[in-house]
Amino acid sequence: MAWVNAVIQGILTGGLYALFACGLSLMFGVMKVVNLAHGDLATVAGYVGVGVIAATHVPFLWSVPIVVAIMAVLGYVLQRSLLQAAISRGELITLIVTFGLSIVIENGLLQFFTANTRGIGTGSSLISASFSIGSQITIAWLDVVIFGLAIVVLLGLQYFLSGSKYGRLIRAVADDREAAQLSGADYRHVFGIAAAVAFATVALAGISYGMTTVIDPTSGTDTILLFAFAAVVIGGLGSLWGTLIGGIVLGVAQQIGAQINISDELLAGYIVFLAVLVIRPQGLTARRSES
Amino acid sequence: MSEGVAPGGRVESGMPLLEVHDLVVHHGQLRALSGISLRVYPGEVYAIIGANGAGKSTLLRTIAGLHHPTGGSIVYDGKNVTGVRPDKRATAGIVMVPEGRRLFPSLTLEENLKVGATYARPGPWTIGQVYDLFPWMKERRNQRTAQMSGGEQQSVAIGRALVANPRVLLLDELSLGLAPVIVQRIYGMLPQILASGVTVLLVEQDVSQAMRVATHLQCLLEGRTTLEGRPSDVTAEEVEAAYFGMGSSTSVDAKSPVRSAPDVEGGEA
Fold this sequence. Notes:
Distance between the termini of chain A: 47 Å
Radius of gyration of chain A: 19 Å
Strand content of chain A: under 5%
Oligomer: heterodimer
Number of domains of chain A: 1
CATH class of chain B: Alpha Beta
């Protein structure tokens, strides 16, 4: 039963990892930006959530759309300014710029919020409520809610990318920037929209993380970015649902590792990550062949 | 035959729709265009011919805004657009069908057309009109274009440009990589496109094809104009000489009788 429990907990954690990963995957798929500040931006969203609740005393649920909106605007502005300037100078520059951004954010957070950990108070009993199946399996409602949120986010992204005007433009620009320009599309604006959407998911990732555990200025790189990368690579680059598959595989591997030996939790996750890189570098979900 | 201004032109026929003055374009150190000028009047089919590396595609891409000229200017509809971004030129009515089609491979046929229509000017062309022009598209509109033949892809590329309702349609090497029969069929659509009031500026390596459809002809050689005129006014010998740069100079440009400039010859990557 303990093993079944590990698998169930792993699957639910996979939802959180998918939330971490889908924004990273989107930014890479559209702009070819490997955003090393991705995790730190999620942490920023967590702190913004804490700040919004403290400053305005709105109920937790109201703070979520506010944080998402703030992060989306930040995403657009950051893309149109710093990231666009980096993109036009080459891929390596972009990598270095996001690395620098990561350092700046971490140290900025340390400066303003100290190294103390913080949690996002939901003000409801949901955060600790759970239900049991049999005597050995206990499932936290919060994990179920976050897993559900991940599904909703992925469905929303899929609907947005395939059905909406901007989704279509984003895919067109990702395919061929120059040809999209010849159709009248300002690709920099389209990049900005894509970044806004990615940052909105980053906001949800940061809030979810802040609810399941506590955040501190370094949790962005230490946890969120690494798990996001692992989930994206395991699932397959550029695949939306692949991030969920990757997240689940990573989550299950970690839980099973922890079941073997509590100190092997992270190790087991990275062993699977490396194994996928060696055996199936294109990821578990079959990616369409591109030239 | 020698019809200069086609019926249905919406602008006063006296004023050129597109003017290029002394255009100079460099690719790094290479000089690809050395002072090209042209005037395209409403309703014309203006063909640029020339061998590989003559600078034809560079000229068209510069007019579309994809290359920045080092000298000269581009005037469209009376306004200088030399420094205008390519997407702004497209929404103003200069729309290009790029060399090699350049469709969006992960999008379906219809999605490709929808992208073309997103920033369209008001005008006669709709996705429905394109389906009328190419009836086969309607059934296959949900297919990815990557699975289609070269001729079909070229048709989609033309459709994607048409739904933007261009005033000047730039066609870059339509015949490239296509069987002659398919090329004939695609050029066979030109009258219908012209009838909707679109002016066409095209680049073509296939001289006989260009001669058949053009109302005006300009031949480039190593970034310079070597011949210009109506197809009915030039002889095959003149075209041949201008195309290959052999024999007596047929250059209209008196300033450069021989290739005297120390430039490296213009070539396309």
